[in-house]
Amino acid sequence: MDVSSKYFxxxxxxxxxxxxxxxxxxxxxxxxxxxxxxxxxxLWEISHRLYVYQASNQYLQFTDYxxxxxxxxxxxxxxxxxxxxxxxxxxxxxxxxxxxxxCLQTTDGLWLGSRYSHRNALYCSDDQSQSASLVYEFSHPVxxxxxxxxxxxxxxxxxxxxxSVDQGASFKPVLRLSSVISYFLFNNGMTELPDGSxxxxxxxxxxxxxxxxxxxxxxxxxDGGATWESSDFLIRQGVNKHIHLxxxxxxxxxxxxxxxxxxxxxxxxxxxxxxxxxSDQKTNWRLLTKYHHxxxxxxxxxxxxxxxxxxxxxxxxxNFIVKTADAKQFQKLVIPDPYRRSPVMNMVTRxxxxxxxxxxxxYSCLSENARSLIMCTKDNEKTWxxxxxxxxxxxxxxLVNLSxxxxxxxxxxxxxxxxxxxxxxxxxxxxxxxx
Length: 435
What we know:
Layout: H1 3-11, H2 18-31, H3 35-49, H4 52-55, E1 68-69, E2 80-81, H5 84-88, E3 91-95, E4 100-105, E5 111-115, E6 118-125, E7 133-137, E8 142-147, E9 153-157, E10 160-164, E11 172-176, E12 190-192, E13 198-201, E14 207-208, E15 211-212, E16 218-221, E17 229-231, H6 233-236, E18 242-249, E19 254-260, E20 266-269, H7 281-284, E21 285-287, E22 300-304, E23 307-311, E24 320-324, E25 331-334, E26 344-352, E27 355-362, E28 372-377, E29 385-390, E30 395-399, E31 411-416, E32 425-433
Parallel strand pairs: 1-29
Antiparallel strand pairs: 2-3, 3-32, 4-5, 5-6, 6-7, 8-9, 9-10, 10-11, 12-13, 13-16, 14-15, 16-17, 18-19, 19-20, 20-21, 22-23, 23-24, 24-25, 26-27, 27-28, 28-29, 30-31, 31-32
Helix pairs in contact: 1-2
C-alpha cells in the first residue's frame, strides 16, 4: 500500500467527508505498519517546506547541462539521442535490436538476458546486442538474473532459483523461495563475497487478509550456489514484508542489507569471516539505522573507491541519495523537486576513460508532477547531471544491465505505457561513442 497516493487523494476529498476519510486512512496506516513512515514523511516534508535542507546545504546539486525529456510518442521511437552532457563526453544512446529486459555480461564478453518480447526465455548475444539466439526457455517469466566470477549463472523464475554452469545451456533448480511470486531484485538482491560465497534476499509483495505475507528470508551458499541455507533473522527482528538489497561492499569489506516494508532499516555484517545465514545471525548483523527518520530500506546501491552510495525508497515522500565511507557517518542529500517524490530504484557503476561514473534511475508513477529521472555523476558524487527526464505515469525508463566491475556498458529500456501490459511498447538503447 502506498501511503502518499492515499494521502493526496484524501486532500482532494470534499470537506464534509474529510474526517471520515482521515480516520479510515489512519486505520489503514496502522494496519499495514506504516505509522513510522508517515511520521518520517511529515517531518521531511516540513523540513523541505521550511527550507531547512536548503539552509544546511542538504540538496543534491545538479549541473547546468540541458536535460533531455520524453514528451511524446515520437521520443520513444528515435534510433539514437544525445545531449550536451553526452556530446561533450563523446557519447550517445543508440537503439539496439534486442529488447533486453535484464542483461548481464560473461567474463568472455557474451551478453545473456531475457527479453520483453519473450519473457520466459534466456537469450545470448555476441555482437553488441544487434542479434541474439535463444539459449533456454523456462515455464514462467524470468524475474531476475545474476552471474558470479566463475561464470555460474543464476536465473529466478516462478519463485525458484535455477543454476547453470554452462552459460545457460542447461539449468538445475537449487533454491525454492517461499512463494511463487518471490524473486531477488535485479542488480541489488543477490551478491558474491570474496571467497565465492553467495547471498540472496527474498523480495515480493503478497497481501493476505489483513496483513502482508512475510517473505523476508535471507539465503546463503558456501559451495557456489549448489546448495543454500535459509535464515529468518529479519522476521524475528520484526520485519514484516521482504528484503530490498543484499550487496557486498569491497570498500567496507562487509555485506550491506536493507529491509522493507514497515521498518525500512539498514544492516551491516562484518567482519567478513562472520557472514553466514545461520541461526545465530542476530549476533553477526549490526543495525545501522535504528529509527525510520534516519532513512533506510534502500532499494539501490553503488560503490566507488571513495565510498558507498544508496538510493532511498520513499514513494510519494522525500527521497535521498546517501553516501558513506565507513558505515558510521552518512551524508544524506535530498533529491530536488520535481524528482523528490521518486524513489531511486537502481544504480549502475560504469568505468569510462575519464574515471568512474554512477548512473541512477528514479521512478514514480503517482503523478505527472512527480517527474522521474535518469541521472549521472562523474565527479566523485559532488554533482549530478540530469540526462533523461520523463513522466512516470506515461513512460518508464530502466537501467537494464547488471553493474559489473571495470565495465563500460550501460543499457536503458524506454517503455511507453499503452493500456494492458502486453500492449506496452519497449525500446532498448546502449550508451556508445559518437560516430
